[in-house]
Amino acid sequence: GPHQSAAGRTVNQQHKTNSVNHKKLDEDTENYRVQTVSHKLSTMIQKTRQKKGLTRKELAHACQERETVIAEYENGKAIPNGQVVQKMEKAMGIHLTGANAGNEIVKKSKKAAAKPAGKKA
Questions:
Q1: pLDDT, greater one: 86 or 16
Q2: pTM for this structure?
Q3: What is the DSSP letter of 121?
Q4: Within a 10 A sphere around the Cβ of 2, how many other Cβ atoms?
Q5: CA 45/CA 94 separation, integer angstroms
Q6: How far apart are CA 68 and CA 72, in angstroms?
Q7: What confidence tens digit (pLDDT) does each residue in 69-89 have?
Q8: Of 74, 119, 76, which Cα lies nearest the Cα of 92?
Q9: 42 and which of 11, 16, 19, 76 could share a cystine (Cβ 3.0–4.6 Å)?
């Protein structure tokens, strides 16, 4: 996470290629002080929602959140909440964070999008 920069610096001696990412890491840590949604996440949410043809209202309804919550995430004003982001991911079927961001969430059974995946007898 963002708070491991001190540890990261010691590891850095082994990975000399990481020095390029170092500047980026420092910039990111500054964003964390405000603790709002990263620009990357806010644009990801907006693009994904538009790609799915959803209004903010529809996405909010699917996530059981208020429309203003979605708006704040898209404006980068929201304080990120893992549960809300997960609900958005489920509602749109797209990963919004991590290495798979922008990719479809692949489930084993295709029709189980709305319900939590239960074990099939």
A1: 86
A2: 0.61
A3: -
A4: 12
A5: 9
A6: 6
A7: 999 999 999 999 999 999 999
A8: 74
A9: 76
Residue 42 token pair: 């806010």
Tokens 């939590």 found at: 116
Q: How many residues does the chain have?
A: 121
Find where tokens 């708070």 sit.
3
The amino acid that residue 5 corresponds to is S
- Structure-token match 């209202």, residue found: 57
Mean pLDDT of 24-37: 61
CA–CA dist 115, 84 (Å, integer):
17
Return the exposure string of 25-59: e unless at least 16 CB atoms fall within 10 Å of the residue's CB, then b. eeeeeeeeeeebbeeebbebbbebbeeeebebeeb
Q: Which two tokens stand for residue 36?
A: 């709002």
CA nearest 70: which of 51, 93, 91? 91
